[in-house]
Amino acid sequence: MKYIKFKNSKKISLKKFLKEKSISMRAYQELIKGGIFVNDEPTFKNISLKEGDTIKIFIEDENLDYKPIEGDLKIVYEDDNLLVVNKPSGLTVNSNNQVSLANYLAYYFKENNIKAKIRLISRLDMNTSGLMMVAKNKYAQAYYQKQLEENKITKKYLAYIKGELNIDKLYKIRLAYDESSKSYRENNDGKEAITYFKSIEVGGKYSIIECDIKTGKTHQIRASLSNLKYPIIGDLLYGSEYQFERFLLHSYYLQFIEFLSQESIILEDFHDFKPFLIKL
Prior knowledge:
With 280 residues, this protein is an alpha+beta fold. 17% of the residues lie in helices and 36% in strands. It is built from 5 helices and 17 strands. The strands form 3 sheets. Strands 7, 8, 9, 10, 11, 12, 13, 14, 15, 16 and 17 form an 11-stranded mixed sheet that branches. A 4-stranded antiparallel sheet has the order 1-6-3-4. The longest helix has 12 residues, at 138-149. The radius of gyration is 21 Å and the shape is elongated.
């Protein structure tokens, strides 16, 4: 059976230590019943930890929850608890009745004896390419999702837009789903979406914009740029006039604090996106 091994660095109770690792109270109670190993000895109650103590949490094997299908899976980063992949454009994340990234991940898990469900930390639209995080167990999933909620994971995108746009600003907008257009539109009663936009390259026919998202709202980059009157090239839903095989949005940058070591991990992968050959 596999396990997660932590090393404590300060005086703290076992319960508080695990809470800081995003272990929920319910999960803690389940773990303590079966015994949490501290310095390789089972512990069935909350105890005080000392600097240098090791804590082990055992992980039960799980069955795959998606059909394994072999596909082109580009892995950018991997450790015992996390996988970061570069999703291509045109591939859904986990849609029913379609071959998806989840199917490719299931095949990889099967071939590499990773006995776990597919746990997606972040998602991308079908026609958006780029970096995505996938947890290998429920404890890592809880940790990274909390990091996302607390805005401790930096995610940056590149977007191609028509025309010249010189921008370097924090853009805030309230967005709500509009049933008639099947898209997200500005609405005072909507949820706030915050993005830092910065021009990377400004040309005569198009500009490349870096989009640093500060909130994780659906379609926030696409809707925000459309509201600024600069829709992403190829994004017909949000007003682009160009028919393209995809819309030109790519998640190229990730920065996060690793689950066990607490080290800062920085990943960049352009996947041939920049420069992108376009003819307008």
